[in-house]
Amino acid sequence: MDATRTIVETVGKLRQRRTAPLVLELDLTEGLSEGPPADPVSALLSMRKARLTDVLSGLRRARKDPRVTALIVKIGGYPLGLGMVQELRTAVVKLRAAGKRTVAFAETFGEFGAGTVPYYLASAFERVYLQPSGDVGLTGVALEQRFLRDALAKAGVEYQIGQRHEYKTAANTFTQNHMTDAHRESAGRIAESITEQVVAGIADARGLDPKRVRELIDQGPFIGAEAVEAGLVDGLKYRDEVYGETVEDGAHLLYVSRYAKSTLSGKLPHPGADTVALVHGNGMIRLGRSGRSPLGGGGAMGSDTICAALRSARRDEKVKAIVFRVDSPGGSYVASDAIWREVVLAREAGKPVIVSMGDLAASGGYFVSMAADVIVAQPGTLTGSIGVFGGKPVVGELLGKLGVVTETVAEGANAGMFSPSTAFSETQWERVNAWLDRIYDDFVGKVAQGRGLTRERAHELARGRVWTGADAKAAGLADELGGLEDALALARRRAGLADDAPVRTYPRMHPLERLRPPESSEDRSAALARVRLEAWGPLARMAGQLGLPAYGPLVLPGHWTIR
């Protein structure tokens, strides 16, 4: 009898849980993962992070789910890229339009520090609450660059670098002691464009005049009471007060990513259904497989991994369109070209390819994108940077100061040309410049071909210049402004699929297949990332500065962080 009563009570609780009102939660304290982990190390490091695709999918489903009554998002200090923030803002605005309550809560938007981008995200919510001790660091956009040429010269290091063209400014850190005119012009326009987007977004969401928002930016940062008075936040509340006001009695709390994965939130796709393939390309672009270093640094987009994924999707009869999500500052020209070729082959096979740009799709990141049928970028995506640079540091003087003697035995006039011990000869510089010219001409030619531009117009837009997504669309380097959900919807329409057609990540793989070596280069497991112990992240930068092999030449100019 007791057992029967227990079963009945359990069933009753499960039924109640299935029908109870839902309040979705999203904790951004640890940030978000852009895509699936590339290897076991990445999987471990991202265990506490929600995945952007899961969050977007969950919020899309929540719009039509009558059980979902509200969304509470905790915005922390972890820096999110502007493109990702705009993706989340769009999803929140659509959820509000569906009649759901949306609440943003933060202990602080910058504790005695910049908080413009986190507040920009929060402004999209119906209600914005701040802990009484918190601040709103709405201070605007600043792009800061450090120049090391004079410091390196004191140490006996000289950089010999060629670039195509004047806006390709990544190497200026090592070759200049100030911003060039082109560098300042490009950086100034990026800051201006981003400010325009932030001001427009805050003004629209908070019901303020854009001119007033600019005044507030100049007056920031604000302590909590000042932020309430200015209309930037709706109240000063602790977490328990926010939840007490938002979560009704009997409601069930559930994280968005869990909600997205639960069978309660939608039907599982049929294994044989026509589908859209989603291929993620994140990080610096390099030859070989994707992966990351256990010693630190970010992940990498390996050409073998991405090419195999695109091939697999192209050959799968059930795949009717491909969405290629790109979030990369660039990297190897040769690796970028290999990925570009697979995008071309997919289009030639009759499968629409839609590129969705994340925070960053510059240089090599644009190279792998430019052959797509449609490029979708966020207004704040940094893209373009169509150009190249290459060269080496010369550390012979430094080594001499340290008492290091270098002797070389070589056969061939240019056998030692890439040694950091000696400078390029005049003849060797000719070979470097021929290499740079060849890469730039190929890059610009393929931009013209892929984007339907004349070569002259493509060169005018190139020259190494970085554009925001909004400016890139105006110039014809991107087609639409939007995010991943927009790209998936567009892919479904292009392929003639239903609005709810399933999306599958490629390559499709059983987890156990990760443990075995591939049988051939066509084997599915050949597309897997592996853990590589190598000079990556900080170690790669150190290696590059010492003239050791690194990944280049296509990179984003400068190391800019927008807060």
From TrEMBL:
Residues 97-245, 347-496 form the Peptidase S49 domain. SUPFAM superfamilies: ClpP/crotonase. CDD domains: S49_SppA_67K_type (cd07018), S49_Sppa_N_C (cd07023). Keywords: Hydrolase, Protease, Serine protease. The keyword Protease applies. It comes from the Bacteria. The keyword Disulfide bond does not apply. Belongs to the peptidase S49 family. This is S49 family peptidase. It comes from Microbispora maris.
